[in-house]
Amino acid sequence: MKRGILTAAFLLCLAVPASVSHAAQLAEDTIAEGVYIEDMDMSGMMVSEAIEAVDSYVKGRMDTMIRLNIEDNWVEVSASDMGLSCEDANVVEEAFEYGKEGNIVQRYKIMKDLQQEPHVFSLQFQVDEDTIRSIVEEKCTVYDVEAEDATVTREGGSFEITPGTKGIKLNVDASVEKIVETMSGWDGTGISIDLVCEVEEPRGTEEDFAQVKDVLGTFTTSFSSSGANRTKNVTTGAEKIDGTVVYPGETVSVYELTQPYTEENGYATAVAYENGREVDSVGGGICQVSTTLYNAVLKAELEVVERANHSMIVGYVDPSMDAAIAGTYKDLKFKNSTDAPIYIEGYVENKKITFTIYGHETRDTENRKVTYESEVLETTAPTPALVYVADAAQPVGYKVVTQSAHTGYKARLWKIVTVNGVEESREVINNSTYNASPAYCSVGTMWADPNVTAAVEAAIATQDNATIDATIAPYAAQLAALQAQQAAQ
Predict the structure, then answer these.
(1) CA of 51: how far to CAs of 25, 46, 99, 457, in Å?
(2) What is the number of helices (H) and of strands (E) in the chain?
(3) Which of 36, 296, 348, 477 stands 20 to 30 A from 252 (CA)?
């Protein structure tokens, strides 16, 4: 029985033409007719050919340029730059196996169906959101345009207003979301995507500045005893603050307005306080600028955000009425707590510095009066009263007081409000502590004979004025004679 079946089968094989047998074998080695991957016809392709075709297709999609529009600007990046990837590694295998699985009836049906309608395998592409975000942040946000607030200048007693300009700011999160959404249904052709931008309106309108007409506070201090360099610094500081506009709710820093304290920025070397000593510093005198403005701010009753007193008492205002500037750790900051912009005018005239703050007056200025009162709580005399220091740059015989003594103080500042002459409120605005500091006297120690230098240094170490004078007296006479001789020549 079995032998008969085998014989029949053998005879059948002999009856099939060789070309038909070859075609059947070829069909087994290639993808069926009517099978597509995306829009690529895979019919009759061997696996290696299909892989090559798919790779070429994917590469073409990767190289496709995507245009990202930012208002009137645009950035072009390739799809691969946006992290595009294709994860269908088995799609060719699936296409090859299509129609080759199942029994003969199932396979026959699939083949007949393919004759009527192709079967399409899709490639699944995806983009990397982090990569897209990096592109948007690095290449697209450069086209952000800051809004320029309206500006105002005061000339001849009136204000001139220059309107501001709108700004454009890219919404990074919304733009990334839009790109990812667009690319998820992308057909692989070149596309243009409008990113999400937001308009930033400038601050300050003509209506806003129409309110800036009232004097809210003004204050003046004198620097009549200052030299040329300190005068220059006070003048420079006033110029840098003059014309500043502060919008409602905005906080300003005097340090930020006036720094850096360099010669290139208009400052010179003058006396300043540092660790209880008077030292030469570029920008010395800037504290008188901040102090004068501080008192104008108090008069205007604006919110003081930050204020620090000097380490030692100053002579141009009463205790607790000063405001020191020292790097970033001592600053004067205040907020415009009114309902309209304020304009700060600053100028120097006849060795006096004045700041006036203009804005919208809403206070009862007829019946309500505000004054500030300095109260000294405690004084401390410096101990010792005088300190002698060696000065190797000066000859023996030189003896000069370089810094006067400073009394120490503890003080506070009161804000007193009266209505119709009757005190309504009294509150402490600040408490200040000023260090006592002795006077300093420099004593020269430079001499050709090192024994003389050593003797003077030993005398200085005693901190006794009589001992120092007795030690330097012989050399002081020699120094005076030498100076007289040089002058005569």
Answers:
(1) 21, 9, 19, 93
(2) 13, 27
(3) 348
Q: pTM value?
A: 0.70
* Among 169, 36, 24, 171, residue whose Cα is nearest residue 100: 24
CA angle 328, 331, 337 (to 5 degrees): 130
- What pLDDT is recorded for position 413? 98
CA distance linking residue 179 with residue 435, whole number of Å: 63
d(CA 202, CA 161): 13
Model pLDDT, residue 271:
81
- What pLDDT, on a 0 to 100 scale, did the predictor assign at position 276? 66
Q: What integer is the mean pLDDT of 142-153?
A: 90
DSSP state of 100: T
Residue 89: per-residue pLDDT = 66
Q: What is the pLDDT of residue 155?
A: 80
**DSSP 8-state symbol, 136:** I
One-character DSSP codes across 192-239 = EEEPPEEEEPPS--HHHHHTTTEEEEEEEEE-TT--HHHHHHHHHHHH
Does the structure show a pLDDT above 80 at 81? yes
DSSP three-state, residue 446: strand
Statement: residue 342 has pLDDT above 60: yes
Q: Which letter does DSSP use for residue 317 in this model?
A: S
Sort 260 into a burial class: Cβ within 10 Å, 0-12 / 13-18 / 19+.
exposed
Structure tokens at 303: 């919110």
- Answer yes or no: are the C-beta atoms of 419 and 368 closer than 8 Å: yes
CB-based contact 461:445 (threshold 8 Å): no
Residues 6+ apart with CB under 8 A from 272: 278, 279, 280, 281, 283, 284, 285, 287
| pLDDT 10s digits, 116-131 | 899 999 888 888 999 9
403, two tokens: 């810094």
